[in-house]
Amino acid sequence: MKGLPSQGSGFIRSKRFSASYASILAKNAARFAVSARRFLPLFIALPLLGLPVPVNAVEIFGWKFFESAKEEAEAVPDPISYQAELSVSDGDDGELASELTSASLLVRQQEKPPSGEAGLIARALSDRERLIARLYAAGHYGGTVDISLNRLPLESALERAGLPDTRPVNVRILVNPGPTFTFGKVSIESRNSELSTDPSFWGLAPGDPAGSGKILSAEKRIVSLLRGRGYPKAKIAERRITADHATKTLDATIVADAGPKARFGAVTVSGTDVTKPGFVVQQAMIPEGGTYSPEDIARARKRLNDLGIFSSVRFVEGEVAGPDGTLPITIEVSERKRHVIGAGASWSSSEGFSAEAYWRRRNLFGGGETLSVEGSVGRIGSENISNQEYSARVAFEKPGVLGPLTSFSTSFEARQENPDAYISRTMTYDAYLSREFSETTRGRVGAKIQYADEEDAFGENQYLLVGLPADLTFDNRDNKLNPSEGIFAAVFGEPAYDAKNSNGMGFLKGTVSTYYALDDAKRFILAGKLSAGSIIAPSVSAVPANRRLIAGGGGSIRGYAYRNVGPRLNGEVVGGRSLVEMSGEVRVKITDKIGVVGFVDAGNAYEDTIPDFSDGLKVGVGAGLRYFTPIGPLRVDAAVPLDPEKDDPDFALYVGLSQAF
Fold first, then answer.
1. Higher-pLDDT residue of 55, 37
2. For a FRET experiment, which of 53, 205, 467, 486 has its CA 20 to 30 Å from that of 286?
């Protein structure tokens, strides 16, 4: 039978065998053979066969995106409709029935009729194999699966040219799981390397339920452990499994072959068109001559994917050769399109709409360089055209400038900002060197010059700041857009000098957020965030308005107007030299696609360099809805300010992609 493993790869000796399948007759009486006995090794190996999984279009609120023509309409010749029902006998508690129903193609694909009676019979045959495999995965090796089509047993349908005429076809699936088998005698053996022979260490303890998935999991762990010790060709050489129906036990012998130990050899590259092969080798950082390690391969794959210039990266391991066990590596890459155009939008009831667009040229000179042209418009609808917020930016980035872990970036930006407190027009040039210290820690240092022309409660002022900014970031969150565990922390510092007004100053800011799941399914998440900042300067007015510390808005204290919380002069916010912000959220996932959030934000900005908490904190409370899409949660938040002041709304709505923090 197709997919049946040979005895060399492992087989099961059973003290009871099931009946064979007969040949199947199609509607036109053409015969095609379907051999098979319900032979246990097939189903032990089924999860290894990699059954195809359909790829669905992205669906948001009933609208489908990226839907292919095949998904949209696929003609099926001579479709035959049917109704399927699955039931489980022998006192099942319901959990196994649910698993079997989820595994059944006949049940799940009722809305996709097969082609003709032969197609329905073929689907039923496939379903029987899948359901038996599911029984074996749960440790039921003596169960039966009976399928009838219009009350005609599947075995009888295999022997005749057609089904009874009733349409839609009535399909009944009756599953009798039988007893649960337990592990009996389990033996773990290894060639060329030592392994633990304790079955409990591998999850195969005698007396435990003998699910076939446990055997496969143990084999994967064995191979993974051996590869981690420097044996790239490790494999399971033999699997012997015996099911004893009299004692309801499953005996298993697993023999692993470590193969030769290896060291990384020469690294070559294929598939490049524009990219320089030497650059790929440099960024991969595979230690030639070092002991083989899957972790080194995984890190190399991540570094190359992070460049953003490849659509696929594949590492092909050669044969171990030579007295020192050299293993050559070939990196096969496929380059992405070099031109990229993108756009995005957001909205809040207090700030209006904002839109942005960008054009990028990837791999400019074949070394991973990126040239970007970006533009944005903000406060659309809340201000007239001349007072809206605008920005235009040109940026260049070059990875691998001082080794594979260092990159260089530079940009020029022109911007107009117009929150309620001030209007600022700036031009900024900056240049940075960035360094990756580990998978979780990054830092950068640079130089920046900024000219600002501003109007606020202090009048009209111009500034020319020259600074040396630096920041350090730690991030071990499990998901950047929807984290459920981990920590994000960042600290920023910049000594600066205002050449136009002869004032020295320094900027400091830090933020940390953390996440904790209350249950294993990660449906209940607690999230918290704390930010603080300080500016060392002669006075508030000596600091450009766009650099002063002001709170309020969607990324700060929700419910309050954008940059409308802080020290005031004549009723207008002017900002301060210190800031504290805190946020707490309870995130609950109701279904796989819908979640709700309750949150409290608090904070304030203060005139002095050190916060004066006698002024108290501004607090906003609210709730939100989350719709989980494949690219991240769609967020809708509503917040109320508990102590609003001038220009603050009664409540505010925020819409965006990803969690608030």
1. 55
2. 486
